Amino acid sequence: MKTEIILKTEDLHKIYAEGTSMEVHALRGVNIEIKRGEMVAIMGPSGCGKTTLLNLLGGIDQPTRGQIFINDQDVNQLADTEITEFRLHNIGYIFQLFNLFEFLSALENTVLPLLLTDTTRLEAEEEAKMLLRQMGLGDKIHHLPNELSGGEQQRVAVSRALLMNPSIVLGDEPTGDLDQETSTDIMNLFVSINENYKQTFLVVTHSEHIAQFCHRIIRIIDGEIVETGKEGL
Description:
By secondary structure, the protein is α/β, with parallel strands linked by helices. It is 32% helix and 27% strand. It is built from seven helices and ten strands. The strands form two sheets. It has a six-stranded mixed beta sheet, with helices on both faces. Strands 2-1-4-5 form a four-stranded antiparallel beta sheet, with helices on one face. A hairpin with a 7-residue loop joins strand 1 and strand 2 (24-35). The longest helix has 18 residues, at 180-197. The chain is globular.
């Protein structure tokens, strides 16, 4: 059976301040394919274009030229209102600094995406509670972020990213603010979710240790892919 390609880019370019003396080529003709159920790491030095690529894939920014396909949908052809809806249902995003609302509980932070749909609040909260229990936070659903450890806060962020059952989860240095032991715990969690639910992950990281949890590593230098392949677990 042919493996489904869930994400693909074709000749993707991003140029900042185009046509000026300050012109910066952040991405230079990037072509990638991510299969459903893969865990892929993107690595490279600071300023190489990793986060720019993730922002384009997540619909946070627009490419200068080139195409992005997610589930065969040409994302560049979507209007602003359509990309917001598409992102809600297809893309989960996990940030380095968790991006939790400090005045909301773990449950309230997790449930936010579902409140943007026609799901009732009661149904949304039941789904969020189930996810938080799976993350080992069943006894802390009403805790505020400042009452949780860094690893627990990231588990809340992971729960929020998974709540809509997205096609792909994008992680921007998701363990960058955590110590190595906690980072390993989070990556083991990703592996478990990937193996049990076939969830696709694309993770930007500076860490070789973190990248080795993934099936494949894509390396970027100066906005170009220089190496891609499996490098062992």
